[in-house]
Amino acid sequence: MNLVVQALVNHQSVKNLTDTQWDLFIRQARSSELLAHFYHRFSAEGIFSSIPEKPRNHLISDEILATRQHEAARWEILQIYQALEPIGIPVLLLKGAAYLQAELPPAPGRFFSDIDILVPRTVISEVEEKLHQWGWLTTHHDDYDQRYYRKWMHEIPPLQHVGRHSTIDVHHNILPLTARLHPDPEKMIQASVQIDEEFELYTLCPADMILHSATHLFHDGELEHGLRDLVDLDQLFRHFGEDSNFWEILINRANEIDLSRPLFYALRYTSKILNTPIPLNALQSKLLDKPIYPVRYFMDRLFLRALAPAHKSCSDWFTGIARWFLYIRSHYLRMPLHLLIPHLFYKAYVRPYKEWRENRKNVLSNKPEKKESESEIDIFE
User: Fold this and answer.
1) What is the Cα–Cα distance from 144 to 355, expressed in whole angstroms?
2) What is the pLDDT of residues 170-181, one digit of tens each?
3) Is the pTM of this model over 0.85?
4) Distance between CA 320 and CA 218 in Å, rounded?
5) Residue 60 and residue 351: Cα distance in Å, rounded?
6) Contact, 145 vs 67, CB < 8 A?
């Protein structure tokens, strides 16, 4: 029973939940990182006060955590801006940090684990150096990982602050260089919009923001929080879609920067799962890159399961298989087979073996020396 999706589609449905159902709802919502989101939804609908005390306390607790994280994130964004100011480039925020700083509908109650920024590839080395000077250092020290990120990926290895442990993902594109789709990051940077008059903080333009969110969700194999990301898209569609001209702009932009297929999936599954009010002419547009019917049917079987809360009550026998297929698909979309097969082999076999050897070496190096005789024990202990 997917109580979370029921509540997302019809907020009033929670009024009829039993104590047992409330317990299940809280578990499903927490696994989806949507508890704080529901705090704001129920408050806006005027039904928060009617919720029983115990589930209400869970909602309040997560909202307090989200608020504190947002306060910390705003301060970290300012630190990033100050670190990069000498380079003379705008700080272009992505995903959760962008929603927060621009005060967009997905922001209230939205958890995010790191701050994502997009910078021109030509200055990536300068950006990394400045962030190093301010205390953000690489988290991936393995030679293979460094080479993998810097040669093939759309970002450098994540950077973590040595003191505060905040994490920055520095992107120079929104998809890996080896991906089958080839969006032009320069076009996206040129179309970005300033959101802060005092500081040069930017976000992607509305169409690009949606396209990036869709691409992140439907090209990523890690779908534990897929429903949360789908909720982001639902809210962005509702917000920007109030302008009737937006849908035509969005579809044309998707074709311009080679992201029509992820937009198709975003439109399809927000409308199917969350009843997002998308105009019929947008859903059926001939300009969208739709897969053929057998592929659409198969993808429905996968995504309608994988985008449910990552809780056993929302799973059937095929859910695990569906998530596994989508994980493999995400790698296939990222890299051609001649690069993908060696990469998966390394992740599946070589890295675990290297980690095992390293752990074994550490254990042996910390092993106490064997004492030669009982007399030594008596004397030295």
Assistant:
1) 13
2) 999 999 999 999
3) yes
4) 17
5) 42
6) no
